[in-house]
From TrEMBL:
UniProt cross-references to InterPro entries, sorted A to Z: FAH, Fumarylacetoacetase-like_C, Fumarylacetoacetase_C_sf
SUPFAM superfamilies: FAH
Pfam family, one: FAA_hydrolase
Residues in Fumarylacetoacetase-like C-terminal domain copies: 173-346
Domain of life: Bacteria
Name of the featured protein: Fumarylacetoacetate hydrolase family protein
Keyword Oxidoreductase: no
MF (Gene Ontology): hydrolase activity; metal ion binding
Species, as recorded: Sphingomonas piscis
Family: Belongs to the FAH family.
Keywords: Hydrolase, Metal-binding
GO biological process: small molecule metabolic process
Amino acid sequence: MLPDDLDGAVLAGRLRLDAGPTPVIIRGGEVFDVSRTAPTVADLLDRDDAASVTGERICSTEELIAKVASSAPGSYLLSPVDLQVVKAAGVTFAVSAVERVIEERARGDSDKAAQIRTSLESTIGKGIRAVVPGSEEAAKLKDALLEAGMWSQYLEVAIGPDAEIFTKSAVLSTVGWGAEIGVRSDSTWNNPEPEVVLIVNSHGKAMGATLGNDVNLRDFEGRSALLLSKAKDNNASCAIGPFIRLFDEQFTMDDVRNAVVELDIDGPEGYRLEGTNRMTEISRDPEELVRQALSEHHFPDGFTLFLGTLFAPVQDRDEAGRGFTHKIGDVVKISAPKIGTLQNRVTTSRDAPAWHFGVRDLMRNLAGRGLL
């Protein structure tokens, strides 16, 4: 669950204590309740001294792991974000761009995907990898693809000047380590998206990073990009965690740029899939994506930003040529050595625990505890 270099890391997150959702800091092998200083994680990350905030000791990290293991999945260790808007950047890797074009042309039909994939990769795969988005070379590639009848709205955000930035999930709707993660029960082609997630405060400053699973319904988005909200924003469809690693001398944006994110899926029938997301292959720099997410808008409680994924699973699962899709019971692990491991079990959005605790509930809880 925790970073390999835990002794040198400062982590922020949330636990569900008896009193309610509680921001914590992990430092030096100890877990501290910092709610008296910062009643929400959004408050904590707006502080210049976020990494050094102290509070009442709760337990050691060893005791924390034991408590999480003995608790119901997702009941004690919560998603580490609370009031932040959950934003995501899409099509930030060349392979991701190719896969989105495949979805568009296959109209959500996984049977057609393999043939289209071979044709597209031979035509544009290397070209996309070679250009900087928004550059003169990118514009020339666009002209060539238009002339060849190969252009797509997904290629526009892959190599054009403007990144795709969308709202992934509602405030307080994300699930954390161990919780069930949901796909719509009427989806027949879907996959995980293992990503690094930046946490940006209300001043537009990236304060740290964590891991995320931006579950995607390829059949829905493939039928029409206008179905993006149905493909992305569903009950329990966004996992973040386990903790935010705060930026300091031991962990910087360069660690994000060089991160290697591993994906492991263990299926209930014995199926296993592995993948790697190398952040060095991202098409746009993380700080540029933060700038584009900010645009001319202000986020008074900050925002999270999924940075996109290189990994698009195409390994066949049941039938040759049908590629990958989730099954109920899949265990998904997303890991990066300096951030930790996010683990969730797949179910349907219909069967996952319903999301009840919203902003009004949080405000009432904090007020009742005398924290507001």
